[in-house]
Amino acid sequence: MSELNIEGAKSAHIGRRAVLCGAVAIALGISTDLASASVPAVGIKQIGKKIQLDLAKNKALAKVGGAVTIDLSNGSSVAIVRTSAGVKGFTALNLSCTHQGVTVEQQGSTWVCPAHGSAFSSTGKVVRGPANQALFAYPVAATAKTVTIG
Ligand code: FES
Asked: Rounded to two decimals, what is the model's pTM?
């Protein structure tokens, strides 16, 4: 689970997909500024076994509670979450529920599993079972311009 490799097929299309989703939302008059919904990360690159993302291209991370997601080659996803305003205020969580592996979804400030209802805090701690272990958290190194995980 700790292996970090961006999914090859999707990583080439993440930017275009995000742009298309934004264009459709704008065409439909839907606000894309949903604080409670994570969005696909853009401006990401693989550096060895680490993943780095450009903060200027991921506006969702400007606000505490914002999150972006990255699909990994192993089929799981990682969320980078803004947990506080400081330069160190980021966490990176594997979104596979620790109960039976279903991908959790962001609902407000929590991550909720659609399978059996487990809920996790924005930093991945269990707030409701049946899961009894926190979401896996990757090491994070952040600067004013980038967040690197792994
Ligand atoms: S797989 Fe998530 S609560 Fe069961």
From this structure: 0.77
Domain-embedded: residue 89: yes
1 is a domain residue: no
131 touches ligand 1 (CB under 6 Å): yes
* C-alpha 119 – ligand 1 centre gap (Å): 9
* Distance from residue 49's CA to the centre of ligand 1 (Å): 28
Residues 6+ apart with CB under 8 A from 22: 32
Give 69's pLDDT tier (boundaries 50, 70, 90): very high
Instruction: Kindly report the CATH number assigned to the domain that includes residue 78.
Output: 2.102.10.10
